[in-house]
Amino acid sequence: MAEPEKERIILGIDPGTNVMGYGLLRVAGNRPALVTMGVIDLRKCKDAYLKLKHIHDRVTGIIEGFLPDEMAIEAPFFGKNVQSMLKLGRAQGVAIAAALSRDVPITEYAPLKIKMAITGNGGASKEQVGDMLRRMLRIPPSEMSDFMDATDALAAAYCHFLQTNSPVPREKGYHGWKDFIRKNPSRVAGSPLAHAPAPSPADTTERQ
Prior knowledge:
Elements: E1 7-14, E2 19-28, E3 31-41, H1 48-66, E4 70-74, H2 82-101, E5 106-109, H3 111-119, H4 126-136, H5 148-164, E6 173-174, H6 177-183
Parallel strand pairs: 1-4, 4-5
Antiparallel strand pairs: 1-2, 2-3, 5-6
């Protein structure tokens, strides 16, 4: 008798300080399907630290509600505005912390990698990425979000699906707090690993 197809749920996150997107895919065998997508709207929250708490609470709630097996998150895009990058990095870190606290494995993907995986064009617009996802996942137009942040998050999840269903090396992933600190010593203040020797190539997969 044939074995039943394994199912898994992938949570995609598009970090943001005003609007954070999320998207969930259910994968049965090699067939992905949309579960849901949406945004965490932070625009009415003016306190920077309360925003971080709200992100943590909402991401934790999504994880507890849908029980994802893995999380894919878009890595920050390094721009010229240092303050904006700092805020975005904090938002991403809080989302990562929420997943790690629930033992959900995490993989980061660069924006270019995600666009290439979805459209084959690293310079594709958000609209092009969203339209391609709609076609590939056969999402009715009425179920598409008005926020590009939601489709960007879904794109991260779909990129992860493609990467984990192929022999191509994956982006940087984390499987717990110790693993996160070991791979990112400079991002953790006071970490005893901050000045430790860098891990060997056999220990970690670097971002392509």
